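Hey,
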Amino acid sequence: MEAFSPVSRAARPALLRDYRQFLRARDGIVDVMNRTLSKREDGLRRFLVAGDRRMDRELFGATKRVLRLTMKDDDPMSRLASIATIALSSTLILGVGDAPPARAEPHAQETAATTPPPDAIAGEWWTEGNEGRFRFARSPDGTYAGVLVGGGDPGTDVNNKDPALRKRPLLGSVLIWHLRPDDGEYVDGYVYNPRNGETYRMKAEVTGKTTLKVRGYLGISLLGQSQTWTRAN
């Protein structure tokens, strides 16, 4: 291996000149990179601001559309959905507060012991105020459907959007369908409201031996109304 040779005195000025050129080039590259990053940050900031404004406009428009839908009549679900829509919009526009503290997850055996079986919803249930009685049964696809079987004679389905169905009797009709069992709850369901002819999303949960928590909603669960039904048999 060759021994290191010191730089000769004559070569030192040229080497020093090359080193200074290298430093200037390096500083130029760093300056270009800084300007580029600054432009990208400004562009990202403008993009985010524009996105926030666009989201606000879209959210405001969606709120007005939901309000037009839900204020068609004096149905209690419609009024509550309208209030929930305004509350959700205000939360999203103004921002949410700090997240709640994390909770300890229950032990797997405790969860299994408290989770009702998938067929816990089967049978007959009185709606809140005993206005109607529904019989839930398992459908061939594994979901559950509810048939109106009692609570007086509600007459025919005069508010149905389909004119061909307006003469069908509501008693004996399937007004709830596609409730899918999911870890103690029933989700992805639909409920038909004969008072205004509208169909809402629905989920349910058996909360006790004789109680069933039912929630109908618009789009997301927050925009809806909950009731507690009681087992009839």
